[in-house]
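This follows on from our talk about sequence and fold. Can you supply me with one protein entry, sequence and fold together? Could you add the entry underneath, on a fresh line?
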Amino acid sequence: MKKLILILLDGLGEHASYKLGYLKALEKEEEAVKFTFKCELPSLSRPLYETILTGKIPVESGILNNKIKRMSKKESVFSLARKAGLKTAAVAYHWIHELYNGSFDLDKDIEVEDLEKNINYGRFYWEDSYPDSHLFSVSNRLLNDKSPDFLLLHTMNIDDVGHKNGGLSKEYADAVYNLGNYLSHYIPLWKELGYEIIVTSDHGMDEKGNHGGDSNLERDVPLWILGEECSKYKDLSIQQKDIKKICCEILEIN
């Protein structure tokens, strides 16, 4: 049975994806395959977390903006993995907890260990500026301690810097370059642990630091499938709503 890490780089637009040199190197060596597609509309975070993890576009899921605080009503990678008897985990923004585990209490739910929940092992944060470096370190510890079958790692620094400085700013570029350092350090370690890895984004960022609309800067996002699984998908046309299906195929769950 395969294990999978889904790395969600919040706010990474396709226009900045070339700055992730390690992933470009894997593409060159045919150890990764890259896709580009338009994210669904509205190009907002909470609706697109739902699209990525349930395969439902926002008008189908009912999660239409960032202020809708309720659990998902759709089957997700988390819920399907649990039904298949797999262990799930997330190191992610607290909206992920609200969507798949329920209401979030920052005093109680910063750490979750509950085999009855959709996300069995969770480490959640609520400040957009919480360092990506910490997220990768916490994820590495969780992978080594709990060995989940499916882990969602969700970063926020690219999105945070983009809102403050714009998607074409030096600060935004620097945030992407910094993220690339973490990927190149941890992905080889996680591959040694036996994990398949997918890297993608929810939405992009326009030059004024906004997203939600239909411009190319807001909607064009990348997806990489790494490792043994990449050759199966290289000739396919993939949309954002297909990510759930790909995750389930790799995990060998229905």
Remarks:
- The mean pLDDT is 97.
